[in-house]
Give the backbone structure.
Amino acid sequence: MSKWDSPVAPGTPPEPASEGLVADETMALGELLPDGSIPEFDETLHEKPENQWLEMWRSLKANRAALVSLIFIAFLALLAVIGPYITPYNPIETNMANALKPPSAQHWFGTDQLGMDIFSRVIAGTRVSLTVGLLAVSIALTVGIILGAVAGYAGGWVDTVIMRVMDMMLSVPSILLAITLMAALGKGIDKAVVAIGLVSIPEYARIVRGSILSIKENDYVAAAHVVGLSDSRIILRHVLPNALSVIIVRATLGISSAVLDTAALGFLGLGVQPPQAEWGDMLGRARGFIFQAPHTLLFPGMAITATVLAFNLLGDGLRDALDPKARIK
Amino acid sequence: MKKTVLLLMLTLTVALAAGLLAGCGGTSETTATTAATSDTTVAPGESTTTAAEAAAADTFTYAQGADPRGLDPALVDDGESAKIIVNVYEGLLKYADDSTAVEPSLAESWEISDDGLSYTFKLRQGVKFHDGTDFNAEAVKFNIDRQLPPQVTPDMGYAGFVFGSVKDVVVDDDYTVTINLTQKNTAFLANLAMCLAAPIVSPKALTDGNNSVMEAPVGTGPYKFVKWSKGENVVLERNDDYWGEKAKTKNVIFRFISDNSARVLALNNDEVDMIDGIDATVVNQITQGGDKLFQAEGMNVNYMAYNTTTEMFKDQAARVAFSQAINREELVTSLYQGYSDMAETILPTFVPGYDATVKQVAYDVEKAKAGLAAAGITKVHMITYTNPRPYNAATGVALATAIQGYLQKVGVECTIDTFDWTTYKEKVKAGDYDICFYGWIGDNGDPDNFMNLLADPDPSMNVARWQDETYIADIKTALAIPNGAERDAKYGEMEKYVAERAIWLPISHAQSLAGYRAEVSGFIYHVTGTVFLSKAVVAK
């Protein structure tokens, strides 16, 4: 069987947006091909992507846990946007006379050591945690994809150098590395974003490299080579889109660990500047009151747990949904 | 099925998250148990193996948070060391049981020359060090000389403080010694009663062993040293040749349990008889466990300082207005939950010179608003520390955030930069702040020890960076006045001077807290933070 017999690989770019681009390439391919293969090619293009996304959505819908998580995350996102306008109290307003009060009608989640309303602070903290989670993952994703793709595609010494550096980063526990980075960068939530983002780069680089190593052996990549496409174009348009599902799953799970890392840094007092509200910071400051006023820990703890759990379950659901073999029918 | 699993997971994760994160600084029962087992093996001789019963009569176990840094009083500067040192060593003088007034100890009496520069001490006769050598005037000279130039070394943390004003030491006869000073210094007598630098060590032990006193102390005190198992305990035994009233309990064991909750557990389980280093959060645990709480005003002050070199707070009116915005009474009650007393003065109430008529700027929101508006203050930069300190159990962050809350109510925005203690001290030294939070733990119980901070040229001590000619002159005068009413009045005047100018905002005096078993009595928890155990007994 010659390479030219089957120009359409099973994993044709699933993204509808890339359709137009792929059409370009088909024409280029078409010119080279002896004859008759173009219409057949086009047909697959129109059908397959739609089916894949639809099937994925169906499978995700069938997974209750993932669906609930998705709704919960949407709710959190909403809170992050409108939260500051709907909190019953100013989350940074102290009221010393009213400190450490248990949950009541006035203060649903009670008040903390300085009399600040915990309910308002938990809501206000949503924005911080989600923003840090998303930004950190974006940083890690961007850098990780570039490094992983280059390493996987180029191979040879480039691969060795990049991946050994990644291995070095992986050999240090990520939270420790993040703390060290924070020590160097200084305190603050913006620094936390950078620290958490940087330490999770290797995970993405590794995953992307792995997928690319397998994808680049496909015939359509070889075909793209033959028609003279540049390396960067091949990586961006033909290789990466096929690794997308893996990346999406990893990124979803990545947000959950970023939320957790943020909380950990906050707990250690390296996060937001007081009196700003952040879940980990709230936990850290309340830990002395675990017996005296357990509600001061319970609610921020629950917020962290629920958010992390939601992203984990969604990630699992997405993995199943994106894997044709594990799909729920 | 799936739902059940999900529910289970959820429950587990919630429990874990709360438990793990919260427990970070928390309990470790394993530590307690391990320490307990090793403890029994270390307990000297005797049939003290079955903890409470047999130990009750002849062993008193005290649990503190850490090992001493060492047991040579000249070479250490920490409280954990001091607690052991005061039971093994004695100085020429000692404090009264309930204040910082000085009393005779190894010196039976003393005379001060008319020019105030020579102190002649009559020493107690027939006192022997634990190694059998005699205590005499030579021993006193030896101990002070090693902390004077040229012998003094940089690691003698308190040498400068205690003996800085000493010119020389002259042995008049075996039991008379004269100490000559370079300048009048009334606080010198209080220095000689201190638990660091001042206690007298056996000269033989110091010359024979190569720094062995750090590990194996030899003093004249009611207890003698037996052994020190690093990380576990220090064992002391009654000195049967003690010159004074012999110790009531035969053995004293200082155990080291670093974790606060573990220490409380050890007390509740009757593994130890007394613990310190506790804070308000564990008080309920102690009392509910059937144990008792010791509570007394401590020799410290927790304060907020204005940086008087900034444009903003150079102005006295601005400082006063800022102070007026803060409801200290509410703040202290709420933040320290009754375990710190609100400070109206810099001096704790038991220190000579304390004046009850001194009042800080009173809380008045309206005046504060007007004053701050007049001074044009809308933004203030604060720096603070993240950890609890002996004078501020609630951490500097909590204190700063609370104060920020009060200022927010009068329209002033405070940015708070937080640092760990080591970094914080550097930042304070660098001076880039409008307001900082600090505290002071007294050394010798003399008013000069507190009031001198505001006259100190070193900005890492004088964090308000205040240099006032009148005040500095007053400090010098007061130091030379002999102990008595005149001197006390002078310090009262100086306190008023500082309070009017609102250089600091004194916040609170933290109480000393300790937990002890109901069967325990007779210990002396001194206001200086040390614990004298020679009269302590465990009933039954």
